[in-house]
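TICKET: design request
STATUS: open
ATTACHED STRUCTURE:
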């Protein structure tokens, strides 16, 4: 039986976006557990400085609906990442 991975306070995860709808769509999406225990969506974009140095720009999104995420896992739909609103 596969167990769900649980984030701890201060931890997060980013995954490559499966598809980019526009050039402005994030390159990566995931979740982050804030110090107060709230789980939020996070997006990342690969960027490059004028000197050619690569970096990642991050943006925190809305809190994850814990009930919806838990129902998705129980219903066998896997992680609720596919329902990320960005």
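STATUS: resolved
RESOLUTION: sequence designed for all positions
ATTACHED SEQUENCE:
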């Amino acid at each position: 039986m596969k167990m769900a991975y649980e984030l701890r306070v201060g931890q997060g995860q980013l995954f490559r976006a499966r598809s980019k709808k526009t050039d402005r769509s994030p390159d990566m999406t995931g979740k982050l557990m804030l110090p107060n225990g709230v789980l939020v969506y996070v997006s990342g974009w690969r960027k490059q400085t004028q000197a050619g140095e690569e970096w990642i720009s991050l943006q925190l999104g809305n809190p994850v609906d814990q009930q919806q995420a838990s129902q998705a896992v129980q219903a066998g739909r896997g992680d609720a990442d596919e329902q990320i609103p960005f």
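CLOSING REMARK: The first strand starts at residue 12 and ends at 16. The CA atoms of residues 40 and 63 lie 4 Å apart.
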